[in-house]
């Protein structure tokens, strides 16, 4: 029989974990719930051939495997979130057995209780901001003139300097606009975070990402926040704002395995 480990998805309150047992988990597993006092760990049993140290080292190099596990992981966390506040655990967190999970939950107890109270009644919305392509093209490097003489060379150098100054000015204007967007959106949120901007190859967007923001918003304020995003976008026609979510509060409570 293949040795089994215990995959940990999230931690929530017992009343919110009711009914989760038997839901589909990663690699065809079934979700189980381990009650630990006033907290519940949402887990499933997984083969250590795939989720042990060596298996993970191999599988984490396989993007298809990672995507499949991430989809299942997120689906379980989303189902927890649908029922109440949840503290997601980082992807592919595997413990040796149920006792190890219980020990970890007890270690995290104070942190988790504080986090659940903080995100109770809230959801995460993402706002990705892109510089429009016509704006990001900027100034092209000037083509050297074919004219000869000192005067032509001096004019070319002056043109280079002027163009560099204009690009710097545009960059400063863009940075100020991004700061203003984040500040305005943060004012309507319980909490906010800025993630690293994504490369276009990862974002799938042709424009250059200049802000990757996450905003914790009270559930009853979600529609107002959506409207505020539209207002901010209208005030910044040179930027494209893309709203995503609602999501479980990954950016604000995700527990990292030590």
UniProtKB/TrEMBL annotation:
InterPro entries: GvpL/GvpF. Signal peptide: none annotated. One of its GO terms (cellular component) is gas vesicle. The keyword Phosphoprotein does not apply. It is found in: Gas vesicle. Keywords: Gas vesicle. GO terms for biological process: gas vesicle organization. Belongs to the gas vesicle GvpF/GvpL family. This is Gas vesicle protein GvpL/GvpF.
